[in-house]
Design goal:
4% strand; mainly alpha; 133 residues; two-stranded antiparallel ribbon
Length: 133
């Protein structure tokens, strides 16, 4: 049940990225940047929970096959399983990007609450996986 829940969130996030041209293309519009950053944070949170629920611990076997890693709905065919390390790398990348964008938006009065939540997720990552940071 949690598997389906988190992958539905990932699917919704990837649809946002596909709308703006991919998960590496930050939109110019401030509202769209806000949605983009929130989607990055939510996808990171979802993969973080999935890898902790369904995969081996990073410190036990970071090369173990863990989860399918989807970065786009346009190519949502099964890509095979990614390793625990690859999942964590994506989580860290997404969180760093989200925090950076949200900090800039916060200066303009946008995205304050989501910025704090994203930093909380980043803190959880540091607590549960200190060897990654």
């Amino acid at each position: 049940m949690l598997w389906r829940y988190y992958y539905r969130i990932i699917k919704a996030c990837n649809e946002i990225f596909d709308t703006v041209g991919g998960d590496e293309n930050v939109p110019e519009n401030e509202d769209n940047k806000n949605y983009y950053a929130q989607a990055k944070a939510l996808r990171a949170h979802s993969y973080f929970n999935l890898v902790n629920l369904y995969a081996k611990s990073y410190d036990i076997d970071k090369n173990a096959k863990a989860l399918p890693l989807y970065r786009s709905q346009a190519t949502a065919e099964t890509l095979g399983l990614s390793t625990v390390e690859e999942i964590y790398e994506r989580v860290i990348t997404d969180l760093k990007e989200a925090v950076e964008i949200l900090e800039n938006l916060e200066e303009e009065g946008i995205g304050r609450l989501m910025e704090q939540k994203t930093k909380l997720i980043n803190g959880q990552l540091k607590v549960f996986s200190p060897m990654l940071i």
